[in-house]
Prior knowledge:
Blueprint: E1 3-9, H1 16-26, H2 32-44, H3 60-65, E2 72-77, E3 82-87, H4 95-102, E4 107-113, H5 120-131, E5 136-142, H6 151-165, E6 174-179, H7 203-209, H8 212-215, E7 222-229, E8 241-245, E9 251-252, E10 256-260, E11 264-273, E12 276-278, E13 280-281, E14 286-291, E15 302-305, E16 311-322, E17 333-338, E18 341-355, E19 360-363, E20 373-386, E21 397-401, E22 408-414
Parallel strand pairs: 1-3, 1-4, 4-5, 5-6
Antiparallel strand pairs: 2-3, 7-8, 7-15, 8-14, 9-13, 10-11, 10-15, 11-12, 11-14, 16-20, 16-22, 17-18, 17-21, 18-19, 18-20, 21-22
Amino acid sequence: MDVLKIATAGSVDDGKSTLIGRLLYDTKSLTTDKLEAIEKTSKQKGYDYLDLSLATDGLVAEREQGITIDVAHIYFSTAKKSFIIADTPGHVEYTRNMVTGASTSQAAIILIDARKGVIEQTSRHFFIANLLRVKEVVVAINKMDLVDFSEDRYNAIKADFEELMQKRDYEEQKITCIPVSALKGDNVVNTSEQTPWYHGPTLLEHLEALDMAAVSNSGTPRFPVQYVIRPKTKDFHDFRGFAGKVYGGILNVGDEVVALPSQTRSKIKAIYVYNQQCESAARRSSVTITLEDEINVSRGDMLVKANDLPRIEKEFTATISWMDQKQLQPGTTYVLQHGIRKVLAKVATIHHRIRPDYSGIDEGANALEMNDIAQVSFKLNKPIFCDAFKKHRTNGSFILIDSQSNNTVGAGFIQ
């Protein structure tokens, strides 16, 4: 069954957690004990309805304040598809959390409060979805019950968002607007009688109908080698295989490949999934590959098709989302992890800070604070085998690690 990864975003109190809770409740994905706990807490708070936001706000501070602080991942399935939803915070100071939640998502749901319309945070969240090349964006215009399910209000917000869309630089992105009420359940899972003027699908129907091939950033096949397998048993005395996960496209038996960094060539002799041989390895499948020739390949190397090589770079420029309380400053050295390959990276230049609300850039930035997004150049002690992020999301991204604390301090997207 296909698995669709979705990131949610919206300003404070736009109803993200309630929307996800409604999806879980109406698809009967909540366990009995969880549902009983929600009913009990809702009564204690004096509500005459189920507070479905409690289905996702797991931290004590989240439940007390009624806000989302950390990224929560929610799993549920229908008869047609499985879903992983990243419930990300809406606050400005948690911008880094939305970057984390959206970095592996194929779709994003941006909530807009029908009373407030498009606000600065809407621009910020759309900017991040655009930055991370999320192909499918659903604009859920929520709390329609509080504006009497007004078609005029819905059309006005839709027009404002379409104006915002003109600022994006990722034309492959598809935008769909849906009027919903997460609290009442209108157009979330079931079609609402309150919106006879809306003739599109419900939110769940739209998500179930998405073509996974269309929303995935396929790119070309990249195979980082995670482990060299040498069993040295009686049956496999001469076996030498390379284990890893296929990113991008498909690898087939007989394909001519190049091993990086040595740039030696060979052909794929066999592909194994556990102990079963296959003719091809699909995108995101974990396999073991053997080659026709005895060439030097080690952990951290990469196998790619001979006619489609990545860039081999020791210097590059990337968009950085900074996630640490300690500033990023020019001259500082970090461990850069690109896939499974780790190298030392020195910050060469901070070109400019990017305002993630489409209001422009700040020239002359000499340091980055937590939640800043900026264009930064790096110099590496060893080359990496990369692609531009817009062409290959997996092979065009990396993380920065503080060598002293071992904390992940930033995420980068190669230009």
